Structures are given as C-alpha cells and as structure tokens.
Amino acid sequence: MMDAHQEINNFIKVWIQAMACLSYAYYFSSRLPKGLLRLLSLLPVFYLLLIAPLNISSFILSSITGFFLAWLTTFKVISFAFDQGPLYPLPQSLLHFISIACLPITIKRNPSPKLKSTTNYPSPISHLLKKVFMSFPSKVLFHWVISHLYQYKKYMDSNVVLVIYCCHVYVMLDISLSLCATLAEFLCGFDVEPQFKEPYLATSLQDFWGRRWNIIVSSVLRSTVYAPTRHIASYLIGSRWAYFPAIIATFVVSGVMHDIVYYVYMMHMYPKWDMTGHFVLHGICEALEVEMKCKRSRSDKWQRHPVVDWVMVMGFVMGTSVSLLFVPLLRDNVDQIVAEEYSILFNFVREKIVKLGTRFVCGN
C-alpha cells in the first residue's frame, strides 16, 4: 500500500528541485545568447526535470509531475533556449517565469478586431451546451458520477467501459487545467486561455487537435516540433509539402511523450508504444486531411455539410481512442489504482486536518 506521507514528501521535494532549476534558468541561462550556448547551459535542467517523476511511485502524483514537469516544462525551456515559446519575452519576475514554465497555461494574447469578429461568436448549440453541461460544477458532478460507475464495471461491455474512460479523461483534464488556470490568475494576475474549447464540436482533425483539445500541448508542440521541422523540410522537399513531415513529426513526439508519461512515470515499466501508434495514425490522417482541403479549395466542387464532417471526425476520434489509446487503461485497471490512491490521499488529508484542528482547539 502507498505511504501517503512519504509520497507527498517526495512530491514536494521534486517540485522544490524543479523551482530551483528554473531559478537557475531565469537568473543565469537567460543572460547567455540564444541558441546552442544557452541550450547547453540548460542540459542539467533537462536532466533533472526528466528524472523528477521517477522519484514518485504514486500514480496520481507521478502523472501530474510527468505531464507538468517532464513534458510541458521541458519543452517550454527548450523553446526558451532559442527565444521562442511562452517564456519569451522573459517574464518580469521569477514567480511569473516559474508559473508559466510549470503550469499548463496559455496566456491570452490581444487578438486583432478582425480575429475577434470571426472567432468569438458562438453558435446557439455551442452556447447551450457550454452553459448547461460544461460549467465547472457540472463537470465536478459528472466526474463524481463516472467515478461511481466503475464499481459496476464487471457488468459492462469492455467498449462501454472504454467510452466511459474517454469521457472521464476529458472531464478530469478539463477540471485539473481549469484549477491550474485559476491558480495562475490568483498568483500572477494572468489572463489565461481555456485549455479546452468545446472539442466535442470539432469538424476536422486539424480543428480538434490544433484549436480545441488541450491547447497548451498544441502550443508547445507547435513551437518545439512543428515549426522547426517544417522549416527544415521546406529546404529539403520544398514549402509545398513541408507541412506533411511537420505534422507527422509532431504527432510522433506527442505519442512518444504519452507513452513515456504513462508507462515510465506512472506505471514504472518499459513503454509498449501502443499510444504512439494511435498518434501516428492521427498524424497521417490529419496530414491527408490538410492535403484534401488544399485540393478542395483549389476546385469549385460542392462542400460537405458541417454536420457530416462533425459525425465523421467524432466517430474517428472516439473509435480510435476506444480501440487504441485507452486499451492500456482498461488492461492495467487504472480506475482501481486511481480509486485506491484517492481514498488513501483523502484519508491522509482528513487526518492532518483533524490533528491541526485538535491542536488549535487545545492551544486555545
């Protein structure tokens, strides 16, 4: 059984170490010229960030550390070495630098009036779904309901369980990232972008992955993988086809990081690369989709109705997620692991609060 006290101590130590690394980057590496020299100075930071989750055995705490530090923070610091990404220009204070580096947040930029007029007008259906079903209390309630459904898992078909996993992962991510955004707004006064923009309304894979699902990951991968790959590919195969290897490379890196975070950091085993296969498939399909859009725009043929596109995209995303991405979660009984850890952590926190309250009452 997990030792909650030891795990929380390890979690705190890892994050203190990460803050020390970022302080070094802020005060020392930022003074070096951008490029190779600054990148070399940051190698110790990369090493410490990547091994940080290995010091935690808790599934929940290692997932937070693996996603936040080993993936997002590392990639943000790589971009920072070349004066790119969310850490450029250099934030005014160390607190802002650490918050942007460690938290999965995207700071709002001031869009042009033209962009505002074309992107901020919600459809009636979108507005209704957002108001009724996607408010924060509704998501918390939905999370609670799904969590209690797992006790009936043995009576459900495996595909039904996988669909529940899909919904649960979305709700958990949305709640977690919303809380991080609230923390960033409270500590630093940032105006933060929502990390999920109604992904259930996507009408293309490019729309789903690039503009609606987990925006911070898309932003980080765009600056660290997509843009450099497209720049290099444009010299090798020409700008016309440079997007193709850039999209594929982005999805390959995303898949590899999913496998590393899940298998290495959370499950403490060698990756099986099944998640990478899922993202490679989506990368190939998105690249083909972009090419089809280019050819369709050059011809004056009829356009499909958006509802048809929505059905096709949601069917493909849900189908491949159920059959590829979430199979390891079902195989490894992740719901049981998470439920047990939630119970242990909850009891630990409750015990500490009771002890603190007792000391306060006795002290008075």
Low-confidence stretches: 111-122
Oligomerization state? single chain
What is the tally of helical segments? 16
Tell me the number of strands.
0
SSE run: HHHHHHHHHHHHHHHH
Q: Which descriptor suits the 3D outline?
A: globular
Beta content comes to under 5%
Give the tally of structural domains. 4
Largest sheet: none
Terminus-to-terminus distance: 37 Å
Question: Structural class, from helix and strand content?
Answer: mainly alpha
**Global mean pLDDT:** 85
Helix content: over 70%
User: Which radius of gyration do the C-alpha atoms yield?
Assistant: 22 Å
Report on this structure.
- The chain is an all-alpha fold and 364 residues long.
- The protein has 4 domains: 1-108; 123-190; 206-332, no CATH class; 334-363.
- It has helices at residues 4-27, 36-41, 43-51, 59-81, 94-102, 113-119, 124-132, 136-149, 158-188, 205-212, 215-237, 243-266, 274-298, 306-325, 327-331, 334-363.
